[in-house]
Amino acid sequence: MPIPPSEYVSNVWKQGIFDGRVVFVTGGAGTICSAQTRALVHLGANACIIGRNQEKTEAAAKDIATARSGAKIIGIGGCDVRNPDHLVKAAERCVKELGAIDFVIAGAAGNFVAPISGLTSNGFKTVMDIDVLGTYNTVKATMPYLIESAARNKTYPNGLTGGRIIYVSATFHYSGMPLQAHVMAAKASVDSIMASVALEYSPYGITSNVIAPGAIGGTEGMERLSSKQANPKLLASAIPIGRLGTIRDIADATVYLFSDAGNYVTGEVLVVDGGGWRNNTLSVGLDEGMKYPDFLLTGQFSKHVKSGRKAGSKL
Ligand code: COA
């Protein structure tokens, strides 16, 4: 059964605005990136989604294809963004099978809750590699195709666009967040890659922008960052708009930046967080009652978050 479009995209956008466009998405089977992709597909695009897990990526591709009759979606599993060759091959396959890469979403990311005292150099490096190197590798592998697309769509014929890239970042590094040293460093770097790409490639017609989601309900990110014992009402009350974000909020921002409405926006960070980072009372990995800095001094943060750690790791 296809997911009702109202769950992943608002109804203000015109059908067909992405007709014939192809989007290449790393981490495309994830909750946020699959919603972004689904919205673009619903509005006319075809898609190539990339992930490490073969089964999950192929299943997500099949599911996203239900967003529009006739949609062509490829799921490429076994692709690790840390390996530049994997991405080069995935981009080549996308162009061979779908004809182009018009849009890129660099969404693959790694996250877990850990204090610096519980984070090895390899743990830090793992997240830096997935987020930073992975983003850089994605840019390098897809840029030749994005440049071609931008050249083909220079005057936005019939409102159609091409040559756009969005990076999915975060807001933790704006003011700082305990237990996220690795992610803060990684996402600050992702924002900075976005700016470099904007400066060097906007003259070719490329737009390069970050979307920074806040706390988005029902996502893998929330499972990894928020304790299952956290009080959802308290969580929502820390956000000025008074609720968690939805995947639709992020998908709508994506549609805007890739559409004819986003032609003059490049080098920007679009924060979609209900004002959450400005309040700065949100924290990750804590059960109710755990207070800063006690949880650091006692080494007791929540055990009710999804850990990325494999059994038998060194810590
Ligand atoms: N706390 C502290 N360190 C941790 C950890 C945790 N919860 N989880 C993993 N690590 C460390 C490991 O201990 C290891 O370091 P070590 O070799 O010094 O012990 C290092 O990170 C690499 O772990 P490994 O499991 O080999 O890495 P991986 O490449 O298979 O997995 C992760 C990467 C850890 C980021 C994993 O969580 C992942 O695959 N995430 C992808 C999905 C995701 O995080 N999405 C986020 C959406 S917000």
Structural write-up:
The chain starts with 21 loop residues before the first strand and ends in a 17-residue tail after the last helix. It has a seven-stranded parallel beta sheet with strand order 3-2-1-4-5-6-7, with helices on both faces. 41% of the residues lie in helices and 11% in strands. Helix 1 crosses helix 9, helix 3 runs parallel beside helix 4 and helix 4 packs parallel to helix 6. Helix 4 links the parallel strand 4 and strand 5. The longest helix is centred in the middle third of the chain and has 32 residues. The model has no long low-confidence stretch (mean pLDDT 96). The protein has one domain: NAD(P)-binding Rossmann-like Domain (Rossmann fold). The relative contact order is 0.14. The protein has 315 residues and is an alpha/beta fold. It contains eleven helices and seven strands. Coenzyme A binds next to helix 4 and helix 7.
CATH domain class name: Alpha Beta
First and last CA, distance: 43 Å
Overall number of strands: 7
Largest sheet: 7 strands, parallel
Q: The CATH topology, please?
A: Rossmann fold
Order of helices and strands: EHEHEHEHEHHEHHHEHH
Residue windows where pLDDT falls under 50 for at least 5 positions: none
Would you identify the CATH architecture?
Answer: 3-Layer(aba) Sandwich
Which oligomeric form is depicted?
single chain
Number of domains: 1
Shape, please? globular
Annotated CATH homologous superfamily: NAD(P)-binding Rossmann-like Domain
